[in-house]
Design a protein that fits this description.
The structure holds two protein chains of two kinds.
Chain A lengths: L1 H10 L22 H10 L2 H18 L1 H8 L13 H4 L33 H36 L3 H14 L3 H15 L4 H18 L3 H14 L3 H8 L4 H37 L8 H8 L7 H29 L6
Helix pairs in contact in A: 2-14, 3-6, 3-14, 4-6, 6-7, 6-9, 6-10, 6-12, 7-10, 8-9, 10-12, 11-12, 12-13, 12-14, 13-14
Chain B lengths: L8 H11 L5 H6 L35 E11 L11 H11 L4 E6 L4 E6 L7 E2 L5 E5 L14 H11 L33 E2 L5 E5 L7 H4 L10 H4 L15 E7 L3 E6 L17 E8 L2 H10 L7 E3 L8 H7 L4 E14 L6 H10 L2 H7 L9 E2 L27 H11 L5 E2 L2 E3 L3 H16 L3 E2 L2 E3 L4 H6 L7 E7 L9 H5 L27 H11 L3 H18 L4 E11 L4 E2 L3 E2 L4 E2 L5 E2 L2
Helix pairs in contact in B: 9-11, 10-12, 15-16
The chains are: A mainly alpha, B alpha+beta.
Chain lengths: 342, 596
């Protein structure tokens, strides 16, 4: 009994305020970095953990799309080992026959989400490959955006004079660029350039999508970083480093960058879902990748009443993914923000 | 004739063709007895009845009420000047309700066919011996909506005025250019071509430089309707002040959006063998954003919806619902459209064309494009569409039946010819999911048959331009053609004649693709034969065109006919007499009546 009481009492102690000499024999507690504090806060945040799990599940499913498709014997294309012949599995009106699942029949294990009307690809396989394309675009675009934004922001903020003015002008220039117009203009040019090689065209479309998304959205981060650097460069630790003769590269990389980690993490966590949504939007307009989530949803819109699951499953997955990423982003921001103590 | 919307227009022929290749025996078996079907076999041919007289009476039909016609953007968006209408929806609306031409098509209840009957003229015109002169006589007492007399001088004015294709850019008068005597001498509006004579107010004579045997069919076009010259001289705005000669006149008209028609009291039913004109008013509204919304209105059939019809096809995803809930409110019929594959005749050898015939995934591609067998995908091996007099089945590659796909046979032919791995290239649009899906299906099928598929990417906007440019490195073009009137004259010459008709085949430069000769086909003996058939007596022509098609296909096999199309349209419970006018794939506006 007494032992249990002791345990309860010790649990009430504030761990950060524990000193070695107060509790003899307690394990040694080292000082913790802001990142460590943030991570421990995240771990105790139920929303963050749930969203993390959801996101991880979807990302893993997308990552292993070929493996899952092979294990389940399903296909996202019209040719290949597991492809169905649309002349055999669709009815006269080009809807799936009852034995292949909804809307005419019950769900089957062979095709967990049913098969598509018209070309009879498997809905689950198409969804997984679609997620794969969308996630890959979003992640690469995020990395590119971060790299460009960070570099430009650091350089612009730390340098005084001409370079700062030039970079600030470049930022303004890109900010004034009409994003949708750019995307609209690029798509047909690429199609024309790589018209004869459809495999290559797919890759180029992918790269173009990444370029369109990243070249036109790094400016926000650059401005944010520049502002922070402007604040920090007059602080004592930077001045001290300068007095000690540290090179500019060292100051940027070793003194300023670590102080920007919190900002970066927050920006990255918010831009991934934003890029997914942007990619889907562009693909929906016909500018993006064949086989991504956007085109998948666009093709399914006309079936909203006659084959609802064909439309609503990809929409729901997309909503869940973007919501999870956004909530996770919120939690990360809260966790990294020293002002929000809960 | 163009299709309903400019965007689909002739380019659409190609999209249809890309889309339209599918079928499959399994689907037709599942069809069952209750499924809507377009039966083309009964449409033996559009007949003629020069004796037909008005009024047209429909048994049990009631007069009165308002008919609503709804559609989506793009419908009713093209020119509404009778001298310029060349899209099938506008031609149908005008000739059925607003204007009267020299001849017209009448719906025949028994055969579901369209019959050519007189309209303003007393008969179907009298040609001379060699079809270089046609004489029409007007019925007595015909009046415009304002009560003034209709004379042949006004028709002479309309036809002459329409010859200026710089003003009337859709150019429905193209068949007359260089054919009608003096057609190129029109300097300004109001000039009358020297080949048109009006000895008195009832008689009009057309004189041609070359024989023109199809004048009676062609005369149903609105460009042979009367326009008062003093109103018509405002060529830019005549569409808005159109003077009606038909059973209705315009009460309100906003292009591409709405059209309201009320009765024209001056129209005399006794003079009209083709128009029943039972409803009091017509109300067209083409502002719907989405075909699914149109379908929803028709399915619900509530309020005005009960007396509503649409001339766009029911969305293919809605056809099962219509069939289950409103099968009596579906009108199906054929349209004079044939789509075919045109391998480049100059670069693709005969064996490869034969292998291609086996390799093409007719049924699978049609399914991928959402086409439904026996409704808007009707496999064929014949170029001339059903409904054309004298049409007979033609098969230039008799081992192969319509819509059969057999990669093994294709591969065998390729192996024998030493052409295994032959590169096939064709156009698709990357920004159109249907086009991409269809391309994937076709690509897989070609690869399986031993070809090397190289699809050529373009965008929807550029599609038609790219296809008609011989410099585009594709060697299969998908063709589609919608005939202007049911005659072989409207099929064989456009599809098989080279661009430079005055030169022999060796001298052709192929700088552009002529009309719809997508195969770049040219053989001197065929060209001679086409000229010979054109000048044959009318009663021998129908058979001669089919014989010529047989000769071309059996000797040279330049094109691979894929399918004909049909149309499937819905209407509300309050309407009767809604059928399909097979000459244009539109509802038979002339016979529609309100039953409540």
């Amino acid at each position: 009994m007494s032992q249990a009481a002791v345990v309860v009492e010790s649990g009430d102690h504030e761990p950060e305020a524990v000193f070695e000499e107060d509790v003899p024999g307690a394990k040694k507690i080292a000082g913790r970095s802001p990142t460590q504090i943030a991570m421990s806060r995240l771990r105790s945040d139920k929303v963050a953990v749930t969203c993390g799990v959801v996101m991880l599940t979807i990302v893993l499913a997308a990552l292993f799309a070929p493996l899952i498709s092979n294990v389940l014997n399903i296909s996202n294309t019209v040719d290949g080992k597991y492809a169905l012949a649309n002349t055999e599995v669709l009815d006269a009106y080009n809807y799936p026959l009852p034995e292949y699942g909804p809307p005419n029949g019950d769900f089957t294990m062979a095709h967990p989400l049913g098969i598509a009307p018209n070309n009879a690809t498997d809905n689950l396989a198409v969804l997984l490959y679609g997620l794969r394309a969308s996630l890959l675009v979003a992640i690469i675009a995020t990395i590119a955006t971060t790299a460009i934004g960070l570099t430009v922001g650091l350089m612009s903020g730390f340098s005084r004079g001409t370079l700062d003015r030039v970079l600030s002008f470049v930022i303004d220039l890109f900010l004034s660029f009409p994003f949708i117009l750019f995307a609209l203009a690029v798509a047909p040019i690429i199609t024309q350039r790589f018209a004869t090689d459809s495999e290559r065209l797919q890759q180029v479309q992918f790269i173009a999508m990444v370029i369109v998304l990243s070249t036109l959205s790094w400016m926000g981060l650059a401005r944010l970083v520049r502002g922070q650097v402007l604040q920090m460069r007059e602080r004592e630790f930077i001045l001290a480093a300068q007095v000690l003769g540290a090179s500019t590269t060292r100051i940027l990389a070793k003194e300023l960058l670590p102080n920007l980690v919190a900002t970066l993490v927050v920006v990255i966590s918010i831009s991934v879902p934003a890029f997914i949504a942007a990619e889907v939007g562009l693909s929906f307009l016909g500018l993006g990748l064949n086989g991504s989530m956007g085109q998948l949803i666009q093709a399914a819109t006309q079936y909203y009443d006659t084959y609802p699951i064909f439309l609503w499953v990809p929409v729901a997955v997309l909503v869940v993914l973007v919501l999870a990423l956004n909530l996770l982003g919120d939690s990360i921001r809260d966790a990294f923000d020293p002002k929000t103590r809960r | 004739m163009r299709l309903k919307k400019p965007l689909i227009g002739l380019a659409a022929g190609s999209l249809l063709a890309l889309a339209a290749c599918g079928g499959g025996t399994s689907t037709s078996e599942e069809g069952g007895g209750d499924d809507p079907k377009v039966d083309v076999s009964e449409l033996a041919g559009a007949g003629k009845d020069p004796e037909a007289v008005g009024p047209l009476e429909i048994e049990g039909a009631k007069a009165g009420g308002t008919v609503h016609v709804i559609g989506v953007s793009g419908d009713m968006s093209t020119s509404f000047d009778p001298r310029n209408v060349y899209y099938s929806d506008m031609i149908s609306i005008q000739t059925s309700l607003l204007v009267r031409s020299l001849t017209q098509f009448k719906f025949d209840e028994e055969t579901k066919n369209m019959v050519l009957v007189p309209d303003l003229a007393t008969d179907l015109g009298t040609p001379n011996e060699d079809f270089t002169e046609w004489t029409f006589t007007l019925k007595p007492g015909l009046k415009y909506e304002d009560g003034s007399e209709i004379t042949t001088k006004d028709i002479a004015y309309t036809v002459s005025s329409s010859l200026d294709c710089d003003v009337f850019t859709d150019c429905p008068s193209n068949y007359l250019l260089g054919v009608l005597t003096g057609s190129e001498d029109i300097k300004k509006d109001g000039d009358i071509a020297s080949g048109i004579e009006t000895p008195d107010d009832e008689t009009i004579i057309f004189k041609f430089d070359v024989p023109f045997p199809d004048m009676d069919y062609y005369s149903f076009f609105p460009l042979f309707s009367p326009i008062p010259p003093e109103v018509g001289k405002d060529t830019a705005n005549y569409a808005n002040k159109l003077v009606a000669s038909g059973p209705y006149k315009i009460a309100e008209f906003t292009p591409a959006k709405s059209l309201k028609l009320v009765r024209n009291e001056e129209w005399d039913p006794e003079s009209d063998p083709g128009r029943a004109a039972l409803p009091d008013e017509w109300d067209f509204d083409t502002t719907y954003s989405d075909p699914k919304k149109v379908d929803a209105v028709l399915l619900a059939s509530k309020g005005d919806g009960a007396t509503t019809l649409a001339y766009d096809d029911i969305d293919s995803s809605d056809i099962p619902t219509f069939n289950a809930e409103a099968s009596d409110r579906i009108a199906t019929g054929s349209t004079p459209l044939t789509v075919w594959l045109a391998p480049d005749y100059q670069t693709v050898p005969l064996e490869v064309r034969q292998a291609l015939t086996w390799a093409y995934p007719y049924d699978a591609a049609a399914k991928a494009a959402g086409r439904i067998r026996d409704i808007n995908y009707i496999p064929t091996t014949t170029l001339i569409a059903p409904g054309v007099p004298g049409r007979e089945e033609v098969n230039g590659f008799p081992e192969h039946q319509a819509a059969e796909t057999d990669p093994a046979k294709a591969k065998a032919i390729l192996e024998d010819a030493g052409e295994l791995g032959f590169e096939l290239s064709w156009l698709y649009s990357t920004d159109d999911p249907v086009s991409v899906k269809t391309m994937e299906v076709i690509k897989a099928a070609y690869a399986e048959a031993g070809f090397t598929p190289k699809p050529f990417a373009t965008t929807t906007t550029d599609f038609a331009t790219k296809r008609s440019d011989p410099a585009t490195p594709t060697n299969i073009r998908a063709g589609g053609w919608f005939s202007d009137w049911p005659s072989g004259y409207s099929w064989i010459p456009p599809v098989f004649t080279p661009a430079e008709t005055d030169k022999s085949c060796d001298e052709q430069k192929w700088e552009s693709l002529p009309v719809v000769n997508y195969a770049r086909f040219c053989e001197d003996d065929v060209n001679e034969e086409i000229e010979r058939v054109k000048s044959l007596p009318l009663d021998e022509q129908a058979a001669a065109w089919t014989a010529l098609e047989t000769m071309i296909q059996e000797t040279y096999y330049p094109i691979i006919p894929v399918s004909n199309a049909g149309t499937i349209q819905g209407h509300g419970t309050g309407l009767d007499g809604v059928n399909i006018d097979i000459t244009g794939g539109m509802p038979t506006f002339k016979t529609v009546w309100v039953n409540e």
